Amino acid sequence: MKGRTIFRTSLFLAIIFLITTFIKLPYYVTQPGMASELQPIIEVENGFDKEEGSFSLTTVRFGRANPLTYLWAKINDYHYLHPLEEIRREDETDKEYFNRQLHMMEASQESAIAVAYKKANKKVDFTFNGIYVDGVIEDMPAFDVLIVGDRIYSVDQVEFQTAEEFIEYVSKKNVGDEVLINYERDGEQREAKIKLAAFKDQPSKVGIGIGLVTDLEIDVEPTITLKTEEIGGPSAGLMMSLEIYNQLVEEDITKGYKIAGTGTINAEGEVGPIGGISQKIVAADHDGVDIFFAPNEQNNSTSDYQEALKTAKDINTNMKIIPVDTFDDALNYLMKIEDNN
């Protein structure tokens, strides 16, 4: 009889547990992820494969909160709760958010390749393929016409090579003017006429209400293969550029250290801030990283670097936190340190 009672109680608790996991709360939970080595996912043709140490990107795990993960985040350090609107744009679907992260990753990846190849004095050429829509603003003219992932080829029969050129062209027009947009969706060519309107938060600025990312193909020698299908967002840009460069040159700039970090990178080699750096510090420390590069943001008192220092002190890590504003900052640091072999 007692055994039957225990079984029923256990079954009841198991059912309650399963039910609560399917209840979605209006929050995302983020927590420390891991440090993942880049060499296995980046391969330069006939590149130098001699790393005594390693370069790693760092990740933050996140997912939609349910009652159990919500409570878990409340009682655990470096587990954070974020309202949906902090992660996704207003009215953005999960698919649109995923597509936006992939496009940001692609742009960051191309910048990382360009920076590394130029620094190694290798061939770099670009082919521009239009402009990706990576966001659409509600109550603006494009909202009922374009969706995230559409690729714009021309406006008023004028072809643009960058998102900046598109924005400059449209910004010279007036409220109520109409533009002809030629674009592609799921392999199908489309066109639409869209009127311009003023932005609610910037009445002096006009547009159709979309966010844009330049879509370009990069042509380099030697060729390079990146297996980054599972990586979203731009925050691995700096670390990818270092791994690529290390495969292009004969010297091993890891010098036997486990090196991680985070930060966006643009085609000029400038490193930008990211989100979740405290959690990435925890992840890197857990994986035994020796050196961590953090965006310095030109010595800003609230920079990622400053936050990283506070976290490093809090968790009492021996990992060295190094501030960087550019790819060259990171490279110069590595060239000056002693070997760890």
UniProtKB/TrEMBL annotation:
Enzyme Commission identifier(s): 3.4.21.53
Reactions catalysed = Hydrolysis of proteins in presence of ATP
Which keywords fit this entry according to its UniProt record? Hydrolase, Membrane, Protease, Serine protease, Transmembrane, Transmembrane helix
Alphabetical list of Gene3D superfamilies matching this protein? 2.30.42.10, 3.30.230.10
Which SUPFAM superfamilies does the UniProt entry name for this protein? PDZ domain-like, Ribosomal protein S5 domain 2-like
**Molecular function in Gene Ontology:** ATP binding; ATP-dependent peptidase activity; serine-type endopeptidase activity
* EC top class, as a word: hydrolase
For the Lon proteolytic domain, which residue ranges apply?
Answer: 229-337
Question: Which PROSITE patterns does its entry note?
Answer: LON_PROTEOLYTIC (PS51786)
InterPro entries, per this entry? Lon_proteolytic, Lon_Prtase, PDZ, PDZ_sf, Ribosomal_Su5_D2-typ_SF, Ribsml_uS5_D2-typ_fold_subgr
Instruction: Enumerate the Pfam families for this protein.
Output: Lon_C, PDZ_2
Q: Which domain of life is it from?
A: Bacteria
Q: Where exactly are the transmembrane stretches of this chain?
A: 12-29
**BP GO annotations:** protein catabolic process; proteolysis
Q: Which residues form the active site?
A: 235, 280
Entry keyword rRNA-binding: no
- Similarity annotation: Belongs to the peptidase S16 family.
Q: What is this protein called?
A: endopeptidase La
The species this protein was found in: Metabacillus litoralis
